[in-house]
Amino acid sequence: MKLNDKVGVITGGARGIGLAIARRYLAEGAAVVIADIDRSAVDEALTGLKGEGIPAERLLGVHLDVADRDSIDAMVADVTERFGGIDILVNNAAVFDMQPVLEVTEASYDRQFDVNVKGLFFTLQAVAKAMVARGRGGRIINMSSQAGRRGESLVSMYCASKAAVISLTQSCGLALIEHGVNVNGIAPGVVDTPMWDEVDALFARYENRPLGEKKRLVGEAVPYGRMGRPGDYTGAAVFLACDDSDYIVAQTLNVDGGNWMS
């Protein structure tokens, strides 16, 4: 019960890695806020968790569009009213797109940076302000990617957005530790979620591959021997949210089966 009596907000928490982290936080004693742009997915996730025996008083679902400052402020207000404050933020909401560099559109650029960078930062800022005002410190975990560690020719904007997440984690970590707010990050590798089926279809289009081939190849290339699964990231998310990582500041932890070493 490493997170007993803590309140954790997980953006993009209705599915995939976000929902896996929510389950693990609940198992570690926390109350959990599932914040997602897809309200129906939030409701489905809450129904599933309650069906697993999680008491309703430890759950809250909120609609959150991280690209909308008013939506961020409303989420912080709702959580504060319900639980009294926020102890942990997992900045997990993100979008993905892919085009060759010569075909990247302004709309694609704007969407990825609005959600992956601007949305992440202003969610972090709003929650950090609430943490500082409350005076109890807190933990903020930003989800980056191995794509933030290196460029890829077809994924230039996504890679750039995730590199920005690593940089923001460093800057915000240095700025907020004096207030007792630890900011760190997690950089997943390739993860077997429904989104990767969409990624695979894009690779099939641009690399002229059969559907499923890219996904198979990237899984085989992971030194561990397979793609990641959502549950593979929950241990790191608990570690960075609890007292065990108290002296870790402004770091981004690679959790990728050995794909990247730093």
Automatic annotation (TrEMBL):
It comes from the Bacteria. One of its GO terms (biological process) is fatty acid biosynthetic process. One of its GO terms (molecular function) is quinone binding. Keywords: Oxidoreductase. Residues 6-182 form the Ketoreductase domain. Pfam families: adh_short. Its EC number is 1.1.99.21. The keyword Lyase does not apply. Belongs to the short-chain dehydrogenases/reductases (SDR) family. NCBIfam families: PRK07067.1, PRK07231.1. This is Sorbitol dehydrogenase. The lineage of its organism: Bacteria, Pseudomonadati, Pseudomonadota, Gammaproteobacteria, Oceanospirillales.
